[in-house]
């Protein structure tokens, strides 16, 4: 299991949090998702044998959010 934190440019509303959580939780290989509204961060635990970090990043960006950092 791998855990990555993605820094987003900004989260503007609580419904953004729900949107990101819902889509990522449905992504094959993702085990846990925590979206931190105040710091605009998304923490994701996933199985790298099933899904890679770049796919998770692209999923977030396809929802309309800019990923500006990753650790």
Provide tags for this entry.
single chain; 71 residues; alpha+beta; Alpha-Beta Plaits; four-stranded antiparallel sheet; 4 strands
Describe this structure in words.
- The protein has 71 residues and is α+β, with helices and mostly antiparallel strands.
- It has helices at residues 14-25, 53-62; strands spanning 2-8, 30-36, 41-46, 67-70.
- The model has no long low-confidence stretch (mean pLDDT 94).
Classify the fold: give the CATH topology: Alpha-Beta Plaits
Tell how many strands the DSSP assignment holds.
4
Order of helices and strands: EHEEHE
Look at the helices and sheets and give the structural class.
alpha+beta
Taking the alpha carbons of the first and last residues, their distance comes to 15 Å
Oligomer: single chain
How confident is the prediction overall: mean pLDDT?
94
Question: Strand portion, in percent?
Answer: 25-35%
State the low-pLDDT regions, or none.
none
State the domain count.
1
Instruction: Please give the order of strands in the largest beta sheet.
Output: 2-3-1-4
Q: How many helices?
A: 2
Percent range for helical residues? Answer: 25-40%
Write the layout of secondary structure elements.
Elements: E1 2-8, H1 14-25, E2 30-36, E3 41-46, H2 53-62, E4 67-70
Antiparallel strand pairs: 1-3, 1-4, 2-3
Can you summarize this structure?
This protein has 71 residues and is of the alpha+beta class. Helix content is 31%, strand content 34%.
């Amino acid at each position: 299991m791998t855990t990555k934190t993605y820094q987003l440019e900004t989260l503007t509303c609580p419904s953004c949090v729900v949107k990101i959580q819902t889509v990522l939780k449905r992504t094959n290989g993702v085990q846990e998702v925590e979206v931190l509204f105040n710091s605009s961060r998304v923490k994701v635990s996933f199985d790298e044998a099933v899904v890679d970090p770049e796919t998770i990043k692209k999923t977030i960006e396809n929802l309309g959010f800019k990923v500006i950092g990753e650790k």
